[in-house]
Design goal:
Layout: H1 2-13, H2 17-30, H3 36-40, H4 44-52, E1 55-56, E2 59-63, H5 75-93, H6 98-114, H7 117-134, H8 137-154, H9 157-174, H10 177-194, H11 206-220, H12 224-240, H13 244-260, H14 264-281, H15 284-300, H16 304-320, H17 327-340, H18 344-361, H19 367-380, H20 385-402, H21 405-423
Antiparallel strand pairs: 1-2
Helix pairs in contact: 1-2, 1-4, 4-5, 5-6, 6-7, 7-8, 8-9, 9-10, 9-11, 10-11, 11-12, 11-13, 12-13, 13-14, 13-15, 14-15, 15-16, 15-17, 16-17, 17-18, 17-19, 18-19, 19-20, 19-21, 20-21
Length: 435
Amino acid sequence: MEPLFLAVICGCNAGLFRKALHEVYIPRIHRGDASFASNVLGVRGALLLALAHFFEKERWGSLAEVSVAGQSLAEEDQLFVLTQAGRYLIHTRGFAAPEARVCYQRAEALCHSLNRPLVLVFALEGQWRYSLVTDRLTAAMQIARRTYSLAQEQNNSALMIRAYRTLAVTLFFLGDFETARRYALRGVQIWRSVGVQSSVEEITTPEVICLCYGAIAEWHLGEVSLCRAKIAEAISLAKELNDTHGLAVVLWCAAALGQFERSPAEVERYACDMIELSTHQSFAFWLTGGEIFRGWARSASGSAAEGLSWIEKGIADWRANGSMWCVPYFLALKAETLHLVNRTSEALEAIREAQAVVQRSEERWWCSELERLKGVFLAAVNADETEIEASFCEAIGTAREQKSVSLERRAEAAYAEYRTQKASAAGGRGFRLPF
């Protein structure tokens, strides 16, 4: 493939953009609709380097000016190049890559001028992913609703699955687990009944994402056995479809489920799989997530100091690309580990930082647990009893409001343990986080 990539680069440098695209990139690198270099060889970094030469230097979204007659890219060609660049920017730099957002915004304008509603959904989804991880979730929900309206207008089953995927994911992180599960199940039902084939141009196949987010929503709703079956199916389906990016997402969800269930061995296994896959496929975003989960698994297995270093490095790398998404959850994992190494005051600071991020991002899916942990840590440092009681009651109330049966049970158990210890001779002193 290297000579072909060099041919594209040389052609673009010579101003032969149309020739480079139609004689080399599409037929020999992309191989028509097969996305061969990406889906088979996984050389996304090389693809991105080649595509960069269709743009002005360091200006993604601004296609280079043509100086050779007959070599300008038609609007259809521009749309193709923009969506290709957006796809590989997300793969290699993560959902928070501003360059990908710029490409998808430019692609959206072209979709309107060319009347390409099907491709418009891709462009909106690219912007939705960026908004999901960098902005307030209400902004992401606005884009998800636009996607849903467009899918309805087109009366297209494949588009409806994707629309349900965007709604389900956004609602999950807003903490509306019941509605998130309902939308995820609708997407899965369409896929099962119609047998829709996903495009090879997908960032992730939507049926895989519907399965895994439906699963973790079910964990919250107390349906653990259904949850595990769906996660297993999602992993199998991602492998069957050769959806490597979707597989990374499912492994992330599987690791999170293991952490919810307090199973360090399970988390370690999925984290290692995620790290190996992300390293091979150049998925920097998911690689960092795998490292954070590995850190939690090590800390929960008795190597807290080692685990803490993994978690802190992972959070720093995760935030370096501008992502707020899941930062409150990761800070909760850091807080647990700080508490294990008797740095409970710092653990409380991590919880407060997490809650501040929640205020900016509106990501409320782990709020109950943040309050529960806050109550545990306040009790451990013998804080004011009223403040401790308020944290536990807030944890229980939030879980009930969100209908998270699992987190409600956990918060009630921690509160009961606190009250038992408070009634003992120790007066509540020495309260420790129950794993």
